[in-house]
Amino acid sequence: MMTNKYRETEILSAAPERLLIITFDGLLAAMTRARIAAVASRADVMLPALEKSRDILGELLATLDFNRGGAIARQLSSIYVFQLSQLQTMGIAPDVRMLERLTAQIRELRDAFVEIAARAPQMEVA
After folding, report:
1. pTM of the prediction?
2. pLDDT tens-place string over residues 49-91
3. Whole-number mean pLDDT of the chain?
4. How many domains does the chain have?
């Protein structure tokens, strides 16, 4: 219970760049659950984890600002749409290797956003 309250406070008080990282962390957690469940042939765990992953990707896609983001927003959109389609297929025909590749791609994006967020205060001063 205390963990949920802490998490709620963290989210409500987070800067936009921190919210993005929290969202990617949630996506990675859901994708990891799906992979572990797929390996264990546990569709009862895998399918909800895939659904959670798709929901989070849908939110990431919906929040893209194509006017301000330009080419980067379009590239992210392509990645998110590809991920969504692959995760949809995964519910029908689980593929652990593909899920590992998708997770690695999301982890790279998350790490890039962490680096950008760390530089953001420096960029505003310059």
Report:
1. 0.84
2. 999 999 999 999 999 999 999 999 999 999 999 999 999 999 8
3. 88
4. 1
Cα angle value 14/23/18 (rounded, 5°): 30
Kindly report the CATH number assigned to the domain that includes residue 37.
1.20.120.340
> Does 8 fall in a domain?
no
Q: Output the 3-class SS for the chain.
A: CHHHHHHHHHHHHCCHHHHHHHHHHHHHHHHHHHHHHHHCCCHHHHHHHHHHHHHHHHHHHHCCCHHHHHHHHHHHHHHHHHHHHHHHHHHHCCCHHHHHHHHHHHHHHHHHHHHHHHHHHHHHHC
